[in-house]
């Protein structure tokens, strides 16, 4: 039977294991995690077949790294020094790809960078869901097309994934806009409101949908987002600068009592949002 190792049984790694088992993919899954509770949950739910360590990597046909991006880079460097099968496929589920791919390429054609667009503001195996990967948008970022990419796509065929192939650089630039900046804005709004209401925190109880919806992703794991932003620094900084420029334009319109400019600004935002529904 195909041997698969998942390093990191959090929301993403746990969901991958759960979905493969739910779809009855013929694969024997070894879970690796520093958190014993995560392994216990994975075993009790039947999502993994056994717990293991990186020392077991030499026996694997597939190795999936589903930890924070800093740990992914460290693990890839370690795997590059270990004896692995010549036919093994090593991939990751990290949110940024540039730095990860630079290290992963030490494994040659056996590595393929990946990023499924799944997840929530929650963390840990308790947030794992067998349906999370089914039909998801999934990016693969090969530096050159490889057999590893085809093998990984074939294994996940039952999940009916929509695949998108692009360079690591293009992926990271896009994620700076679609993911990194929204999390920065959500966290900044939450921090700003906290400072404004520091003398009366009870005012947060009066918040309606606008504030709650906008700050929802601000509840995401701080460690994970520290690593993501620092590993995609250049693209994220460029998007923050762009955002500040647009915000400054809106501020100018408000200060000048320019109602038409304000209307045009919000109409543009409305149009973009409506496109998301198409």
From TrEMBL:
Coiled coil: none annotated. This is Prephenate/arogenate dehydrogenase domain-containing protein. PANTHER family: PREPHENATE DEHYDROGENASE, PREPHENATE DEHYDROGENASE [NADP(+)]. Gene3D superfamilies: 6-phosphogluconate dehydrogenase C-terminal like domain, NAD(P)-binding Rossmann-like Domain. Pfam families: PDH_C, PDH_N. PROSITE patterns: PDH_ADH. One of its GO terms (biological process) is tyrosine biosynthetic process. GO terms for molecular function: NAD+ binding; prephenate dehydrogenase (NAD+) activity; prephenate dehydrogenase (NADP+) activity. It comes from the Bacteria. Keywords: Oxidoreductase. Pathway: Amino-acid biosynthesis. Belongs to the prephenate/arogenate dehydrogenase family. Residues 2-278 form the Prephenate/arogenate dehydrogenase domain. InterPro entries: 6-PGluconate_DH-like_C_sf (IPR008927), NAD(P)-bd_dom_sf (IPR036291), PDH_C (IPR046825), PDH_N (IPR046826), Preph/Arog_dehydrog (IPR050812), Prephen_DH (IPR003099).
């Amino acid at each position: 039977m195909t041997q698969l190792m998942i390093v990191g049984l959090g929301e993403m790694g746990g969901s991958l294991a759960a979905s493969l088992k739910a779809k009855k993919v013929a694969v024997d899954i070894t879970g690796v995690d520093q958190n014993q509770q995560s392994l216990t949950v994975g075993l009790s739910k039947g999502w993994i077949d056994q717990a293991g360590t990186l020392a077991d990597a030499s026996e694997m046909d597939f190795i999936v790294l589903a930890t924070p991006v800093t740990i992914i880079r460290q693990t890839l460097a370690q795997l590059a020094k270990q004896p692995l099968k010549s036919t093994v496929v090593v991939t990751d589920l990290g949110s940024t790809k540039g730095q990860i791919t630079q290290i992963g390429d030490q494994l040659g054609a056996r590595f393929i960078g990946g990023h499924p667009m799944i997840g929530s503001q929650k963390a840990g195996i308790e947030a794992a869901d067998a349906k999370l990967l089914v039909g998801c948008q999934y990016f693969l970022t090969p530096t050159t097309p490889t057999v590893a990419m085809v093998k990984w796509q074939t294994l996940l065929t039952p999940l009916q994934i929509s695949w998108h192939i692009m360079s690591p650089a293009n992926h990271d630039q896009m994620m700076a806009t679609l993911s990194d900046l929204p999390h920065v804005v959500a966290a900044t709004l939450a921090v700003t409101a906290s400072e404004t209401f520091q003398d009366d925190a009870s005012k947060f109880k009066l918040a309606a949908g606008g504030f709650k919806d906008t700050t929802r992703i601000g509840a995401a794991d701080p460690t994970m987002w520290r690593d993501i932003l620092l590993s995609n620094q250049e693209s994220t900084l460029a998007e923050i600068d762009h955002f500040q420029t647009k915000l400054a334009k809106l501020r100018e319109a408000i200060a000048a009592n320019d109602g038409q400019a304000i209307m045009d600004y919000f109409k543009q935002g409305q149009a973009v949002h409506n496109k998301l529904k198409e």
